[in-house]
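In this section we walk through a basic example: taking a raw amino acid sequence and producing a predicted 3D structure, encoded as discrete structure tokens. The instruction is simple. Fold the sequence below.
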Amino acid sequence: MHNFSTLKEFLEEPRKVVIIPHTKPDADAIGSALGLSWYLRKDEHITTVLSPNDYPSFLHWMPGHEEVVVYDKEKPEISETIIEEADVIVCVDFSSLSRIEELGPLVRNSISKKTIVMIDHHRGKEEFADYELWDIDAAAAAQLIYEFIDLDEGIQKIDQRIAACLYAGLITDTGSFKFPSVSSRTLRIAASLKDTGLDTARIYNLIYDNNTETRLRFLGYALGENLTFWPELNTGYFTVSQDDRERFKLQSGDTEGLVNYALSVNGIKIAALFKEKDERDGIKVSFRSIGDFSVADLSAEHFNGGGHKNAAGGRIDGITIDEAVAKFKKVLQEKLK
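The resulting token sequence is shown next.
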């Protein structure tokens, strides 16, 4: 952040700050938002985390969860007032306003009126912020929140509450530190968070060992019935239909990590998860890869999405889930020639 000194000077006085994670926030998005919120409160800023929609129940343990405001389509004026009264808007874990659905136009209309900060590590950056801390090589948004705090010379202010939120973001976006995005800096940050006295085993258990019975039964069903391999393309994929969602009463986050099971099979280098949603949401796709194949490029070019080189997502409307799978196969055949 080249002009951080200007932002730091602006934040020397208490401000009203609204912090927004991306739509359907995961542990990195909501953890980064809450971690930053707790940090800014130490300097008497008034902070509100405003989420575009709800997030998985296995993340409700995070300190500050009960204060998160979730955008309500039936009562949009609540979110409108929060943004209208804010001095600063911080966009966390996204760099395009299309990633926050109905909140996007509210932020866009505030560009000339508010101080806007963007902290993110995804490709496809949109120019809308006054201050940017953007690094596509960072392993997680939580890593960049730590860097923000470091720039502010506030590492000593990180307590176990802040550390828990940031550590949750680190372990989930790095696959428990196994992804290629993990750098020595990432590990040093994790060690620094551990040094606060944080019970890292507890954080891991809260996130990964906190299944409902229906989620576990769905996992068994998906592995047995919904997983297909194309060995000639070194590819595996899952499909989740609307019937599956209703049968297992799937909640937000219940398909989290499912795509990685396909990628864990020997010889598989590309994996996808196709989820059938309602008519408005179309078919949502998650992509993963190992090695040089960029699923971010694939998603951006053919599935209205984007993300990281080895982890991306997208959406396609107006077709069935079978048609989406067929398109995926055709695209792969062309790209892998």
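Looking at the output, two observations stand out. The longest helix spans residues 27-41. Residues 272 and 287 are 4 Å apart (CA to CA). In the next section we compare this with other chains.
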